[in-house]
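Before a colleague's protein record goes any further, I have to sign it off. Thanks in advance; the entry in question is below:
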Amino acid sequence: MEHRLVSSWFHLHSSVPSSYVPPPENRPGMVAIASGKTIPVVDLVGQDHAETLRHILRASEEYGFFQVINHGISKELMDDTLNIFKEFHAMPAKEKISESSRDPNGSCKLYTSGEINNKDGIQYWRDTLRHFCPPSGEFVEFWPQKPEKYRSKLGVTKEETMVPKKSTSSVGVFYREVVAFDDATGLRSGGCTKKLCCRLS
């Protein structure tokens, strides 16, 4: 595993290995984008929640992702969260693997695209840390303990965005509305809360 992580060997190559180079027709620069089409922006303040939900669903169907503004999450918290992930991925490979292997059931896992894609297919130039982060706090015991502030920083982020009755941010309040929407429409098993792809700004 250690030697498969992109972060373990990328600096040893003078060029990108062919298995990571997509054919010209699949490269982002070749994708045709409709003229004048912009990334949808979802404002969590000043609109009816039902209308906001419709906006999110429409953006997800027509564009695939969207930008969220007026969400109530401070720039400091967003920067802290991003920085703690950067610190994690900057650690030595052995340490990263150890910190992400506490749960034998795999609720916390570090992997690279070479493990999940066909060996003849194009791989993604990335290493991924994945772990569950439910509002209940379950699985926290399996989160990495390094970097030192990983659990505390991610805990604050989780409470600000998802924990019921604790979050007062616009995105936290709205998350509860989305959960209610999922429950009411029967989409919870594979619906909004699992598939929202957004950027907070």
Notes: Residues 163-168, 183-198 have pLDDT under 50 and may be disordered.
